[in-house]
Hints:
By secondary structure, the chain is an alpha/beta fold. It has helices at about 5-25, 40-45, 50-70, 90-100, 165-175, 200-210, and strands at about 30-40, 70-80, 110-115, 130, 145-150. The chain is globular and about 40 Å long. Mean pLDDT is about 85; it is low at about 5-25.
Amino acid sequence: MTTRRPIIYCILSALFLSSCSVFGSASPQRVIQVKVVADVSLRARNPRWTEEVLGLVEAASDYYEREFGVRLAAQSVSPWPLRQRIRSTRGLLAQLQKDFPVQERKESYDLIVAFTAEAVSRYVSAGRPRVDRIGNCRQGLGSYVVVPVNQIFQYTGPHGQPELDVIALIHEFGHIFGAEHVDDTASIMHEDFDYRTEFDAQNRALIEKNKLCRFAK
């Protein structure tokens, strides 16, 4: 004979599991459409470069969705048809803005991210990852990111240990949302971010404040 108490426990358990499913599948607060391009150096290094750059964006997106409710969705991925190799991220950013001007944008993406495998060092000013502006609501968020990739990356899922190239991308997306460099050596926004994976409280608050802002046009 089935007693009333086990039935109640079963019902409560079912309700709990269903509520966990609902919360676990909650939609992000914002989805940002990203156009991804790869220069000739990265394409020459890895014949599976499309999979690589999509994995880099996915890994950074996993972090932002988990921490801030922001999903970065790769709308498209394509070769960047540079006529010549550019061996500095400063030069790459300038060329990216020239080749994909915001005012002539025909696609509906919010942000363009360019990856390079040029032999540049992040400890040299010409080799640091770059964004076109530190984001704010009044002027609009930045539209361009350039990131050097130091080694071939393979996406291992949403719970994979962040590699340095992914951390660099997370750091630069932080700038897009208004985060700035800090002296806190434990913060991912320290200029020498290394393998740090946490934002300091001030920059975390800035990202929360700016994450729904429009992108500059």
